[in-house]
Write a structure and sequence with these properties.
Elements lengths: L7 E4 L4 H13 L4 E4 L9 H9 L5 E4 L2 E2 L5 H15 L3 E6 L5 H4 L7 H16 L4 E4 L4 E5 L16 E5 L2 H10 L2 E4 L5 H17 L10 E8 L3 H18 L1 H6 L4 H11 L8 H6 L4 H7 L1 E3 L1 H13 L4 E6 L4 H10 L1
Parallel strand pairs: 1-2, 1-12, 2-3, 3-5, 4-5, 5-8, 8-9, 10-11, 10-12
Antiparallel strand pairs: 6-7
Length: 335
């Protein structure tokens, strides 16, 4: 087993059956958790979670993350109570505020995301406790609502932890105040974590809690090869795409805004013009890739993961970028 405790796996943009297979391999190699993405209109998180929960026995299964705009709070509580039953208590709920322009494209106005998140967390937690909820919020309204479960666990409260996926510092502060944990983003530097921890600590203090009471798993983009230069090259395309598609993540980590603008210009906007990503990749420095990913040899990746943990990450969730997830899982678990 690896010397890195609480290893997790983060899965996105792959066939659902592959997600199940890699989750089984992670479980066999002592990983604590697997998290399923739902960031773009690529794949729903809930169907893979159900499949993984069915075909594994021990590993925890998290949503990383679903948003607070497209599902009613009662529906989320109902869905996760069902997944909790299926998994024998292994699921974790991750909630996020989504992002533009995707939300705008599907007709959603992301106004007051902090207010919306607070209402969702409060109401969902009460429903998990099997309370009858009356609530008149700005975004969430409940009139005598409760989970109407007759079979299975019935009236027993569900112990489902709620994580907030946060990138902005105000959302970090809110997570420290109201959530069981913060799902820290990927493609950020370890130094970014230091600023995030300050905000999480402030939020926790507001609720009479300590920072240590807030779990802080973190997505870590990982490219692992025997040839370190090859690993950097394989990670660079993903980094470039994120520079063009989600620049707010890169800005939060201190990547030069001049570089972000230049990459976006070469790409021709988003979606990128034909060949734009490939051309833009050529201007992204290797140092940027090393700053915000764990890329290189096994030892390089292990060292970078430990650096993130030294800066507040409590559970590294590896997102393999190098197309060799099984290799990554087995190698990181054996060092």
């Amino acid at each position: 087993m690896a010397s890195i405790p609480r290893l997790g796996l983060y899965l996105q943009d792959m066939h659902v059956r592959e997600m199940v297979r890699y989750s089984q391999i992670a479980e066999e190699n002592g990983f604590e958790s697997v998290w399923v993405a739902e960031s773009r209109l690529a794949r729903d998180a809930l169907i893979p979670m159900a499949a993984i929960a069915t075909d594994t026995k021990r590993i925890k299964v998290g949503a990383g993350v679903i948003n607070t705009w497209t599902r009613n709070a009662a529906l989320i509580a109902q869905t996760f109570a069902t997944l909790d039953e299926l998994s024998d208590g292994r699921v974790m709920l991750g909630l996020g505020a989504w992002w533009d322009p995707l939300a705008w494209k599907v007709g959603i106005e992301r106004r007051k995301p902090l207010r919306c998140m607070r209402e969702y967390v409060e109401v969902i937690r009460r429903l998990f406790r099997m309370e009858t909820v009356d609530y008149e919020g700005e975004f969430v309204k409940m009139r005598g609502v409760r989970l109407d479960v007759l079979h299975g666990a019935g009236e027993k409260p569900r112990n489902i932890p709620i994580y907030i996926g946060a990138t902005g510092f105000e959302m970090m502060r809110l997570a420290g105040e109201i959530a069981d944990g913060v799902l820290l983003n990927y493609l950020v530097s370890p130094q970014y974590n230091d600023k995030a921890l300050e905000r999480i600590r402030e939020g926790a203090a507001k609720a009479g809690r300590k920072l240590e009471e807030i779990d802080r798993p973190q997505l870590i983009a990982c490219s692992m090869e025997e040839d370190a230069d090859k690993a950097i090259r394989l990670a660079k395309k993903h980094v470039t795409m994120t520079l063009g598609q989600q620049p707010h993540i890169m800005k939060a980590s201190g990547v030069s805004e001049d570089l972000i603008r230049e990459v976006q210009e070469v790409m021709g906007g988003w979606p990128a013009k034909p060949g734009g990503i490939e051309k833009a990749t050529e201007i992204v420095p290797d140092d940027v890739v090393r700053l915000i990913t764990a890329s290189g040899t096994v030892e390089d990746v292990k060292a970078k993961v430990k650096e993130y943990m030294q800066h507040g990450c409590t559970s590294p969730l590896l997102l393999p970028l190098s197309g060799n997830a099984e290799y990554v899982i087995k190698k990181i678990a054996s060092v």
